[in-house]
Input
Amino acid sequence: MEDERKAMVAVLRRYKIQDEHVLEAMGKVRRHVYIPESIRGRADPYGDHPCPIGYGQTISQPFIVAYMTQRIEVKPGMRVLEIGTGSGYQAAILAELGAEVYSIEIVPELAEHARKALTAEGYTKVKLRTGDGYKGWPEHAPFDAIIVTCAPDKIPEALVKQLKDGGRMILPVGTGVQQLVVLEKTGETFKQIPDMYVRFVPMVKGKDADDAGSTTTNRNSKNKDESGK
Ligand code: SAH
Output
């Protein structure tokens, strides 16, 4: 699989991904293990396309993962909130870059799969929550960066509130046609920078029953180390 990862990184370079830290993380994280075993054989996990992960969801194409990660300029120690844990792959990339990762997933089975995969891969400090991402994670706000990997029809206000002064959020916005938007917050004002057109699964509206959420900290892995993974 290492050769497949090298080939994937070569494709990312052709797409003009230039951040060497992002390229290194993409070369290191074992993308195939985040695809549930029952569907792993169906699509090349390292191919230049999204991959199914069950429950009608997908991991984004490697280029989109790398691009969104590059745009939020992740630095070690940054507190990053992800909405839409899915397989856990994007969370692993963020953790590999040294971020303190908080990730919320609305489908409990996917959250459970992601928790297991992240723990098995040694990303023991990633904090996961099953619940509705529209509300963010106020207990751990403010965040240096927020990355949303499902598409709301408009920018969720609660997430903007939970962004730090000087923080940055990237998200796909729209129904049908979606556009990536980078939002940069300065004090109480923010700038919206429209970016490329994309296709993500919709961000679904949670029921009130999801409000409480359930929080899991990955603490059981033997592979703990100090680098935040
Ligand atoms: N980042 C993921 C891919 C996410 S696919 C990865 O690396 O694998 C989008 C995910 O967003 C799906 O798992 C979907 O269930 C989740 N989602 C949709 N609406 C949501 C919401 N309101 N809150 C949290 N997660 C949501």
Remarks:
- Strands lie at 51-54, 57-59, 79-83, 100-105, 127-130, 143-148, 163-173, 178-186, 189-198, 214-217.
- Residues 53, 57-60, 83-84, 86-87, 89-90, 104-107, 110, 132-134, 149-150, 201, 203-204, 206 surround S-adenosyl-L-homocysteine (CB under 6 Å).
- Residues 2-217 form a domain with the Rossmann fold fold (CATH 3.40.50.150).
